[in-house]
Design a protein that fits this description.
mainly alpha; Growth Hormone, Chain: A; 18 helices; disordered N terminus
Length: 401
């Protein structure tokens, strides 16, 4: 049995935290990914190129990343629960405002507010789980399942709403439900670990921090790798509905995108188990290596094969996330944990927002398949980066503990 094989049942408090954070994760990704699908209907109604309509979301995705660092600092100071609730409320109100906005810069401004609200979840949620739950990998895997359920539901539900009531009411309904859910969650009794440390804990952490200075280079390399992963994630989520609308004819593009994303639910669960059972760097490399050829095949296929290969790609590309988040936890002291996640998500979602521009450029010049050729190159660099991470941390096995 490997060093990381211990998987314990959640306590009552841990279970409540896992499901609170999980619901917030699902809601965050739902509102974050509403626009790429909604934009297809909006472009048709406004008679504008889809590439132009998608470009209005750049500010949203940029702030989705940039807001993560201050969110992490706030979570380390005030607690993850409070930061998560504020983020959900801001995102819900911004979605409501987007339903009343004029296409163009007013809508882009509302989308920016939505992205800023959504940015608060990831550093606060990951920090809360890593501090409050003993079976870290399993908790992050379940959290990922919630997130992927939100991701998978978004294209189908959004397309259905847009076709039924139009894009404005789609935004309004989404925002209204999120605001109501936030009010309900605020009444839930969540007992997260205290942020104030005893003197003995502080001395222990200080000793750990002195020892872990050797891991600074590893942390920097992991940030570069995660940034490339964030670029690939954003590029796929923005381009996939349009690619499926063009190349899949036997079902709606919204349903196809939802089915492909559902594979990430299984991937997240198995990725969480792998994070608790296996050496983290090796598991991380295995998931990324498996995703690389699949991403290239997405650019070369259509119809049923495209859907199947896209689903398998999502399985590995999203399944690695509990492993990646566990690597961050293993390289950072607990009292800075949310801040460390804030740095991660600034890079993965902030720099990753530049993928919106890449998608528009590649699709306009060479078609939607070309987007995936570019993303294949990005993930190739990512795999090389994981190799560097393994070299930098040689002789120091990394496990969840």
């Amino acid at each position: 049995m490997t060093q990381g094989a211990r998987i314990s049942a959640f306590t009552r408090d841990e279970s409540r935290i896992v499901h609170f954070a999980g619901f917030a994760h699902a809601a965050t990704h739902y509102v974050e990914l509403t626009y790429p699908t909604l934009a297809v209907g909006l472009a048709l109604e406004a008679q504008l190129p889809l590439e132009q309509v998608l470009s209005w979301s750049f500010g949203s995705y940029l702030l989705f990343g940039l807001g993560a660092l201050p969110a992490g600092v706030a979570a380390d100071r005030f607690g993850g629960r409070r930061v998560i609730l504020v983020g959900l409320l801001v995102a819900g109100l911004s979605a409501c405002a987007a339903g009343a906005a004029t296409p163009g810069w007013p809508l882009a401004l509302c989308l920016a507010g939505l992205g800023l609200g959504a940015s608060l979840y990831h550093p606060a949620g990951m920090g809360l789980l890593s501090r409050a739950v003993a079976a870290r990998g399993r908790a992050m895997g379940i959290n990922g399942i919630y997130g992927n359920a939100g991701i998978a539901l978004t294209p189908f539900a959004t397309a259905l709403l847009v076709e039924s009531v139009g894009w404005r009411l789609c935004f309004a309904i989404t925002g209204g439900v999120l605001v109501a859910a936030t009010l309900v969650l605020s009444r839930l009794d969540i007992r997260e670990p205290p942020l104030v440390r005893t003197e003995a804990q502080a001395e222990g952490e200080a000793k750990t921090e002195r020892t872990s200075r050797r891991t600074v280079a590893a942390f920097a390399v992991l940030c570069v790798v995660a940034t490339l992963g964030g670029f690939a994630y954003r590029g796929n989520t923005v381009a996939q509905p349009a690619l499926f609308a063009e190349k899949i004819s036997f079902m709606s593009y919204g349903l196809a995108a939802s089915l492909a994303m559902l594979a990430g639910v299984v991937g997240q669960y198995l990725g969480g188990l792998a994070a608790d059972r296996h050496e983290l760097r090796r598991a991380y490399l295995a998931f990324h290596l498996a995703s690389l050829p699949l991403l290239l095949l997405v650019s070369m296929t259509a119809e049923g094969p495209l859907l199947a290969i896209s689903a398998l790609y999502v399985f590995f590309a999203l399944g690695m996330q509990p492993i990646e988040n566990s690597l961050y936890a293993s390289l950072t002291p607990e009292r800075w944990r949310s801040t460390a996640y804030g740095i991660k998500f600034v890079l993965t979602f902030g720099v990753g927002a530049s993928a919106v521009g890449m998608v528009s450029w590649a699709a306009a010049g060479w078609g939607w398949s070309a987007v995936y050729v570019v993303l294949t190159g990005v993930v190739g660099l990512l795999v090389l980066g994981v190799g560097v991470l393994i070299a930098v941390t040689r002789g120091k096995p990394l496990y969840n503990h």
